[in-house]
Amino acid sequence: MGRKLLLEKAHVQDIRNYDVYRREGGYRSVEKALKTMSPDQVTEEVKKSGLRGRGGAGFPAGMKWSFLAKPEGIPRYLVCNADESEPGTFKDRYLMEFIPHLLIEGLIVSSYALGSNRTYIYIRGEYAWIVDILEQAIAEAKNNGWLGKNILGSGFDCEIYVQRGAGAYICGEETALLESLEGKRGNPRIKPPFPAVKGLWDCPTVVNNVETLAAVVPILNIGGDEYAKIGVGKSTGTKLLSACGNINKPGVYEIDMTISVEEFIYSDEYCGGIANGKRLKACIPGGSSVPILPANLLLKTAKGESRMMNYESLADGGFATGTMMGSGGFIVLDEDQCVVRHTLTLARFYRHESCGQCSPCREGTGWMEKILKNIEYGKGKKSDIDLLWDIQRKIEGNTICPLGDAAAWPVAAAIRHFRDEFEWHVQYPNAAQNRNYGLAHYADPIRVGAGA
Amino acid sequence: MVQFSAEKLSKVNEIIARYPAGKQKSALIPVLHIAQEEFGGWLSAETMDYVASLMKLEPIEVYEVATFYSMYNLKPVGKFVFEVCQTGPCMLNGSDDIIDYIKQKLGIKPGETTADGLFTLKTVECLGACGYAPMMQLGKHYREHLTKEKIDAIIDECERNAVTNN
């Protein structure tokens, strides 16, 4: 059993209620921080922990905090990014729904470290019922003296508010989120200036993911050094993964980043193997925008080593033979799934979610969807595959925000690793309407050193 | 005429108070949610103009937001809106069949409303329920692990609710 820091108490009955949460040791980290530590000492612990942002980019959280500008007389803000929208990702939802006080506790400690007296949780609009759960938890925290004026006699004031979005994946991008929080369209801003200097209402702002802020609680409780001992290399602590697709036990799992991908998929403690006794064909391990890998490269790196569930090992081989940890949205495809069709749904998603600001993304996502649709529905040409490759390459790196890259990568990886499945669709359009390409050679043992 | 009740107005003021003075525009998205709920499940030009005057914004500031976010309906919808996810993880678990079944059962295509004004079908992109696929949003809540039987039961439930509420 891996060590649990976030979900350890998630199954305690009524843990959603303040009294139960407090009885189980909740809000100790607020007492510790506000009574015995300075804000900078809290930041120092987070730095020591090696915690990396859990939203997808994996940037060191303590370093992000240390970039926050602190000019005299100008308010600073902490904004919690709860706009979880990356296909395959539903871990923050689980955390907020079942153990909301953990997030509130993490927010209070983090607000203290950053000097944020008004902290906002920006939650995706569709999670409407979770807004009620969070507001209830905030009210309970306030009634018990953890929020409001002069908390625990420390002189620190803090209020937390929940802001509901209204349906836009792009608002998970931090500057689009800030635009939305200001009551505008979610168009990402050009960086620099970064939010740490000019964020919400032009004030210095830190935007962190739900899981990142919740992880501050165990970091304070056990200490940054202890936290850093869990895991391996720069993948410290525990990570929530949301597993879905064709597996026996979809759901949210907490891992300590020392297990292998194979164990995560086949162990009964986690995904419990491929559903219906089928075989593994492919997997997108970190949310829809990270590269899809065929079974063989997923389980073993190009060097022939077991691939592990951590930031470094998943990225081993770069985009040629590796992928990314991303947001931890683990999507599994069995042998009967069509990679072209799956890629088409992702291309449609990104076309739908493009904010329209940058031409390569606005136009390119639409073209990719159209071409993939043609290929999937038997109207593709051989040249379409190269055209798709060309379009994705011209989107990547040419947009204000990472949505362009996020749209390009799934298409690029699908062609890179499953080109023969695309070609088969073009060559045998009628067959492709009636059956799937199947597992083919995608699970065959890899030749060590090949393709790297 | 479009006009919030006193109760809703106080809710609007409570939301505006969450932001620093002069930043009331931040309340626009939550206030549009309330307006949509209050005024028939969609945002008419009249509703948007009302919100603009209430919040001391130019009408265009409201229109540009209302047209950007997918949860705001810009034309009338049925009493029950089935928002069925069709993105990758749901597709892997049979969402295409679920959408086809609803289409056939209600006799409408995505984006349409039944003649009795009861049901609207919308296909939507990932709602963050990938582990519980296929799924749809109905009002405030998610309906997950959908099957044809569950769709039958949900439609029955909506029809019963429509009768009791009228």
Describe the structure.
The complex is a heterodimer of chains A (452) and B (166). Chain A has helices at 18-23, 28-36, 39-49, 61-66, 91-98, 100-114, 128-143, 174-181, 210-222, 224-229, 261-266, 295-299, 311-315, 318-321, 339-353, 359-376, 382-395, 403-427, 429-434, and strands at 76-82, 116-123, 159-164, 205-209, 231-232, 235-236, 239-245, 251-255, 280-284, 293-294, 329-334. Chain A is an alpha/beta fold and 452 residues long. Chain A folds into three domains: 18-230, Rossmann fold, CATH 3.40.50; 239-334, Roll (Ubiquitin-like (UB roll)); 339-434, de novo design (two linked rop proteins). In chain A, β2, α7 (128-143) and β3 (159-164) form a beta-alpha-beta unit. In chain A, α2 runs parallel beside α6, α2 (28-36) crosses α9 and α15 (339-353) runs antiparallel to α18. Chain A is globular and about 75 Å long. Helices cover 45% and strands 11% of the residues of chain B. The two termini of chain B are 23 Å apart. In chain B, a hairpin with a 2-residue loop joins β3 (136-138) and β4. Chain B has two domains: 6-66, Arc Repressor Mutant, subunit A (Orthogonal Bundle), CATH 1.10.10; 80-165, 3-Layer(aba) Sandwich (Glutaredoxin), CATH 3.40.30. In chain B, α3 (45-54) packs across α4 (59-66). Chain B is of the alpha+beta class and 166 residues long. At the A-B interface, β3, β7, β11 and α15 of A face α2, α4 and α5 of B.
